[in-house]
From TrEMBL, chain B:
Pfam families recorded: Fer4_11
Annotated protein name in UniProt: Polysulfide reductase chain B
4Fe-4S ferredoxin-type domain mapped to chain residues: 5-34, 51-82, 83-112
Species of provenance: Sulfurospirillum cavolei
InterPro entries: 4Fe4S_Fe-S-bd, 4Fe4S_Fe_S_CS, ET_IronSulfur_Cluster-Binding
Length: 317, 190
């Protein structure tokens, strides 16, 4: 405190910290995992039990990651014991309320999906026999429930972007492309997490054709992400003034810009694309490579969430 | 009768003495580490080489189109019938969305309640007794003028009719009810 007006500590523009970045990552991953599991389940030959390992992976990952993310979110509140007020008081103009309502619907349908896929393990042979009728319900109305789940998952994936883009106090976040970027990177993270869990824990039930399909889809989504990041910064430059200044600072200042270039773009986006084109077919389709590739994509997506949250709040023009 | 309270900060009358800052702390019992109000003093050098000072009142500007209220998921952040932006601690979960969304950095987390806190125009204390906010009362140069925009005879409407004013970050469409009379020398950094 060396100004006559007092300490300026409270004027730090970084309000939300790493737990929010991890939540944004987990919410995107959850949505992407169930979206890619449903896409695979709807493909010919996959829509009957025994389920493909990818579908099993998505069924587990979706509720577990969103649950973990929400716990993190609640403990990050400054008044965590008051969190229940979020569930009964609504402001329909707030993206956070829309998110709460989307999650209200998303949580149960993702658990229904889990019950349907793991009916045998949980409700027939497992300890949750009383849930058998619900598992049957999930299986009998599978297509309809999955269609609803798909829409809600897109909502959850995109809302994390709208949550940040709604704030005009931060030029890097206040951009219309952010929800699209977050949805795309969430899908990429979900695909990658499904591949890792499917290949490691459900090795025998994961079909190579599905692995190849998802891996190929991931590469396409990565191209979309690169384009969205390009649009984001070009858009900021075209707006001029403080926004252009903030954009230039975010691209070239300090550790955060290193994280963007090395972590997000280099490791998370360019390396997977490069390896995919450079490596011989045999290596590319080995399980070890697919798992390695998925892990670097996941690291890149986490880096993107961390970068966007911190750079967004740091470079305010 | 609903009112529309607003304030004028005149840069030519302000001397950066921080009497407002101190009065606010004492009236509203603000904990040591945080501030509802500061006046930032910045030295300026004009094109002819002469020196002067710019004064920035750092506090809530009581927007009409309030980003903090729009984003609040529980309506804890709200505007009362007199146009004053307030926080209802009973509804606040502490998500800090309002703190992040405020383009004026007017909010801080109260160290005791852990809910965001901010300038209230002394609504809960002095205003309810028919007195002006503490900062306005103590200002030794009458750089602060407070009043009801809906009353054509109010002192603030007289000042707004006689002096040039602008509002910070008007491009964001927030319509602040904090009017600044710019320094008569130099440029305006809105």
């Amino acid at each position: 405190m060396n100004q006559i007006w007092g300490s300026m500590e409270q004027y730090n523009t970084v309000v939300w910290h790493w737990p929010i970045a991890v939540y944004l990552f987990l919410a995107g991953l959850s949505a992407g995992a169930i979206i890619s599991a449903i896409v695979v389940k709807w493909m010919k030959g996959n829509d009957v039990s025994p389920w493909d390992g990818i579908i099993k992976a998505g069924a587990i990952l979706a509720p577990v990651t969103i649950g973990a993310g929400l716990c993190l979110l609640i403990f990050d509140l400054t008044r965590p014991l008051m969190f229940w007020k979020l569930l009964i008081h609504y402001n329909f103009g707030s993206v956070m309320t829309i998110g709460v309502l989307a999650l209200f619907a998303y949580m149960p349908v993702s658990i229904l999906f889990l019950l349907g896929v793991f009916k045998k393990e949980l409700a027939v042979d497992g300890p949750f026999k009383f849930l058998a009728p619900i598992a049957d319900l999930a299986l009998n109305y599978g297509k309809a429930l999955e269609a609803i789940t798909l829409v809600l998952a897109v909502g959850v994936g995109a809302y994390t972007g709208f949550l940040l883009s709604a704030m005009n106090s931060y030029p890097l976040l206040n951009t219309p492309v952010l929800p699209a970027l977050f949805l795309a990177s969430g899908v990429s993270a979900g695909i990658s997490a499904n591949l890792v869990v499917g290949l490691l824990f459900f090795t025998h039930s994961t079909k190579d054709a599905n692995v190849s399909y998802l891996h190929g889809l991931d590469v396409k989504v990565i191209f979309a992400e690169l384009f969205f990041i390009f649009i984001l910064f070009v858009g900021m430059m075209y707006q001029g003034g403080a926004t252009a200044h903030a954009g230039a600072a975010a691209l070239g200042t300090g550790g955060l810009s290193t994280l963007l270039w090395v972590g997000v773009i280099g490791l998370g986006l360019l390396l997977p694309i490069g390896l995919n084109f450079a490596l011989p077919h045999g290596v590319k389709h080995s399980h070890a490579f697919v798992i390695f590739n998925a892990l670097i994509v996941l690291a890149g997506v986490l880096a993107l969430r961390y970068y966007m949250l911190y750079a967004g709040q740091t470079f305010v023009g | 009768m609903a009112k529309k309270y607003a304030m004028v900060h005149d840069n030519n009358l302000c001397i950066g003495c921080q009497a407002c800052n101190v009065a606010c702390r004492s009236e509203n019992k603000i904990p040591d580490s945080v501030y509802r109000l500061q006046v930032w003093v910045k030295q300026e050098e004009y094109p002819n080489g002469s020196l002067g000072y710019e004064y920035h009142r750092q506090s809530c500007v009581h927007c009409e189109n309030t980003p903090c209220v729009s984003v609040c998921p529980t309506k804890a952040s709200h505007v009362n019938e007199d146009g004053i932006v307030l926080v209802d601690n009973d509804l606040c979960v502490g998500c800090l969305y309002c703190v992040a969304a405020c383009p004026y950095q007017a909010r801080y987390v109260h160290p005791v309640t852990k809910a965001p806190d901010k300038c209230t125009f002394c609504h809960e204390s002095r205003l309810s007794r028919g007195e002006e906010p503490a900062c306005v009362t103590v200002c030794p140069t009458e750089a602060l003028v407070f009043g009801d925009l809906l009353d054509p005879k109010s002192k603030i409407n007289k000042v707004l009719s006689e002096r040039v004013t602008y509002r910070q970050k008007e491009r964001l469409g927030t319509k602040p009810k904090m009017y600044i009379v710019p320094n008569h020398k130099g440029g305006i950094n809105s």
